[in-house]
């Protein structure tokens, strides 16, 4: 089948860039332009800010960064021989703009400046950019093409609709749209709606890969004027999505008699050729999607920051087992080192499970018992833990219990937390000695409630499970076992979770069962539900009060936690910014003084 003259072959370049690597990003863009040209593309489209990487944050405040990005743009423009190129970059005029360049014939034909600047959640574009004022239409090979950037497509009466009203037949929208679970369906419904409302073809390209806490899922897509899917890229994979669009099939529209910016590049259509049907990949769903997101975010954080290997503590529990599995899948088993750090409270069962998990994954396993250091700390601290410190700013020998007439304080949280801090010290020593990146293994349930130890199990460079609730950890572990056998031993999935900082300890000694805790955490942390709303939803009032208090007083810990992959709509960090000094009581009880800290893992 040959194409009619009203066909344009579009290539969406779903690429993984690196923030700040201007030369490397430009090199990659040039390589993909060559690939698009070899497949006969008339137009190749790259994601938002693909020259700089997304998001560049305060690099945008450096004038040299802006100038260097413009120099790299010149290289891309020069490569636009025989096809048109749309690429995201930072433009500079009287201010700086989040921009899309339209290049063809080796020349810059025009520039579009993003109009809607998101300033919510993880976005703060109004801090950096000025809003654009023009909505040009580019005529290329006789096809009228409108170009916009990301947020511009989310508004029904925004630049996309203006370009459509002025006759745009192909609407190109370039994106750096971060992932969270459930977003793709909402996003694709919006894109489909824009195509149908505009009676035009819609080509939507997204970046892919990880950048600090953010991960981008790709899922680039082309829709027809009837809302039909014409092409769909895979999730979390780089790909060049190429296919023909029969623009002549779009319905004729009434064009408003309004003045607008039109850039005529070439009005002559391309000669007829064999039709190229674009592939339609099936997007990932459910646990498979979430697992791919965490693997992608972990892989890119490690590699883009120059690390070859990672290290983590293996406890025989589910969190460290899943973290090890994700790391092995992201980096290769040969690049993951697990470390057993047994104490007097570590069960033989947990040691066996950790070893079995390491063997199933094929990762290296070391063992460093912490008992000698634990005993040394106890001896060193006994004089001050058994009695009150003396005056003069130095701890003096403690008086005997007979002198004080009281019994010495019983071992408690401070003694327990010595153990994770010893472990953190050992793991950081291995990181320091061999250049490994230390992965922490805490989950969102623990980080939310403060059930973790500062400078202990929180110590590290990247928190793989940071935005996954404990119940999701179990779900993903079962999913991972479904792929190629039980890399996570069944006993790990079945036994009650425990920090093992004292004899017979269980998480439920300090926290509600996770199946009760996690829905409350989601309601309070992600959905901003009030105490009254959560109780009205059927949650136990005393449990709700306890959870709110745990979350509120643990903010100081979260400020000191390493970054981790964003999976939910409201992740700790960029998404949720609470004051450290805060007397507002969400449970309805006024905070009149510093709250008493009672969590078993406080500090």
Characterise the protein shown here:
- The protein is an alpha/beta fold and 603 residues long.
- The protein is 34% helix and 18% strand.
- It has 17 helices and 20 strands.
- The chain has helices at residues 22-38, 63-78, 159-165, 183-198, 286-304, 318-331, 348-361, 371-385, 401-404, 413-434, 444-449, 470-484, 490-494, 514-526, 531-536, 541-552, 555-558, and strands at residues 7-14, 43-45, 84-92, 96-104, 107-113, 137-140, 143-149, 170-175, 201-206, 208-211, 214-217, 221-223, 229-232, 239-246, 262-266, 310-313, 336-340, 364-367, 437-440, 462-463.
- It has a seven-stranded mixed beta sheet with strand order 13-12-9-8-7-6-15, covered by helices on one side.
- A hairpin with a 2-residue loop joins β10 (208-211) and β11.
- The longest helix is centred in the C-terminal third of the chain and has 22 residues, at 413-434.
- It is elongated.
- The model is unreliable at 251-259, 388-407 and 592-600 (pLDDT under 50).
3D shape: elongated
Low-confidence runs of at least 5 consecutive residues:
251-259, 388-407, 592-600
- Average pLDDT works out at 88
Helix content: 25-40%
* Strand-residue proportion: 15-25%
| Radius of gyration over all CA atoms, rounded | 28 Å
> Given the structure, what is the number of helices?
17
Question: How many strand elements?
Answer: 20
Distance between the termini: 69 Å
Tell me the major beta sheet. 7 strands, mixed
Structural class: alpha/beta
| Assembly level | single chain
Strand order of the largest sheet: 13-12-9-8-7-6-15
